[in-house]
Design a protein that fits this description.
By secondary structure, the chain is of the alpha/beta class. It has 17 helices and 13 strands.
């Protein structure tokens, strides 16, 4: 099967080249490509050893008596018939959540055999980590992996030159209209196909949306098949209903009562916590945004939730609401302004794209701002920190008149720079505040260029 380049590859290669490296925990939702990325890295080593604790439960016995790495590794090598040599072997411990003792042993790989390259991953790893009192803080390095970004999608479709040309565009020197239109067209496809590697591979192979939807349905079923494993105190039926409700309520303040079936708010919140821990949902939390860090003024009672993937969200909508062929046809044919303003998909993609172009070495949070005054509807879709400054991001297609909330936020917080993400070409707006005389600048960043957003303020 062809391998598609991923952002995580650069970070894994850099880790592998270090003289001093810790074991890596590769974390992320099921089927985002963790195992495939590690196998790809394995090609750079003389020897590659993969142990899957779900498929090969016999390896769990090696960790039962004690966690002495000097004892475990020779026995592991004998069982798999491959050498495990420091500096020459990449050892991959997959589905490690099935063996908590193996998770605990990772710290001793660092202490007792620091030259050996070890990577661990697992589908429900976060639940295992959450239940362990400690698993080697300071001796293990985490990396977080997500579905494919739009840039990764473009590369999978062989559009390397298009990326290069796009990256040369600036706010004052936008793309030619044919190139802009081509990127918008590809973004529409990405909205439907999403970034799950199997769905992207199916699109590259067939260019058939229906076959991609079959893949997406299978992924959702596999997620729901995992629900009984999400600790016995969370009802799998509630998890399914919460997931579908999250798709319906995406990019809106989540209302627990809309999940239905008479579930209590605390029960729904617990389900949301489980789905977040599994990497299926990403919370966007309200903050007053008076300064950094945003978490100090976060209000957990005002939260939106993003699904991890736009393609999966649309399939979940289909399951929750019935036939959504009208929505999918609108994504492919609707005018740019209507597409951005009338659907949650564009806003969701902006948040997820921004998150996924950050370093994968830590888990990043997303925040938004809403004026909590009575009868006020002012809301800014995202607020992020950039070079110690607050940067508001609004997902819109209109001009100045359509950004009342953004102008209000900038004036209230005394901010001079902001971003409008839309399906417009690159550009910029200037607005002079009549009262203060302050010039406020809004960079227009096409949704197909979120990976370039950081370049606007180098």
């Amino acid at each position: 099967m062809k391998y598609y380049e991923r952002i995580i590859d650069t970070y894994l290669s850099e880790w592998a080249s270090r003289d001093n490296h810790k074991p890596v925990l590769l974390r992320g939702a099921r089927q985002v490509g963790k195992s495939t990325a590690v196998r790809h890295l394995g090609n750079a080593f003389e020897h590659y050893v993969e142990i899957n604790f779900e498929k090969q439960p016999e390896y769990k016995l090696l960790f039962k008596d004690n966690l002495d790495v000097a004892r475990i590794l020779p026995q592991m090598a004998a069982m798999c018939g491959k050498p495990i040599k420091a500096g020459a072997t990449l050892l991959f411990l997959d589905e490690i959540q099935e063996c908590p003792e193996a998770i605990m042993s990772l710290r001793f790989f660092k202490e007792d055999m620091p030259e050996l390259h070890v990577i661990a991953a697992g589908s429900l790893l976060e639940f295992a980590l959450d239940e362990l009192p400690t698993f080697g803080v300071g001796r293990i390095h985490s990396m977080f992996m997500y579905p494919m970004t739009f840039d990764e999608f473009l590369k999978a479709n062989g559009e390397h030159q298009l990326i290069d040309v796009r990256n040369q565009a600036t706010l004052s020197c936008p793309l030619s209209e044919p190139l802009h239109d081509k990127l918008v067209s590809l973004l529409r496809v990405y909205m439907l196909v999403g970034g799950m590697p199997e769905a992207v591979a199916k699109w590259v192979e067939t260019h058939d949306f229906l076959q991609c939807q079959e893949v997406q349905d299978d992924i959702i079923v596999s997620y729901e098949d995992d629900f009984p494993k999400y600790r016995k105190r969370v009802d799998p039926t509630l998890l399914r209903q919460t997931l579908r409700s999250a798709a319906v309520q995406a990019t809106k303040k989540f209302v627990c009562s809309q999940v239905g079936s008479g579930y209590k708010t605390e029960e729904v919140k617990k389900a949301l916590g489980m789905l977040t821990l599994a990497g299926i949902l990403t919370p966007v939390t309200h903050t007053s945004a008076n300064g950094l860090p945003f978490g100090g003024e976060a209000d957990d009672s005002y939260r939106k939730y993003l699904l991890l993937d736009s393609g999966l969200m649309l399939r979940l909508l289909n399951m929750a609401m019935g036939d959504i062929t009208q929505i999918t046809s609108q994504i492919l044919t609707m005018g740019a302004a209507e597409l951005v303003n009338k659907g949650a998909v564009a806003e969701m993609i902006v948040g997820l794209e921004y998150l996924r172009y950050q370093t994968p070495n830590i888990r990043h949070d997303l925040f938004y701002w809403v004026r909590q005054a009575k009868n006020s509807q002012a809301e800014v879709d995202y607020v992020v920190g950039h070079r110690q400054r607050i940067l508001p991001i609004e997902v819109k297609a209109g001009t100045q008149g359509g950004m009342k909330s953004l102008w209000m936020f900038m004036q209230e917080k005394k901010i001079t720079d902001a971003v409008r993400c839309s399906l417009e070409n690159f550009g910029k707006l200037e607005y002079c505040d009549k009262e203060s005389g302050i010039i406020r600048n809004v960079a227009i960043c096409p949704i197909y260029a979120i990976s370039k957003m950081q370049d606007f303020w180098k």
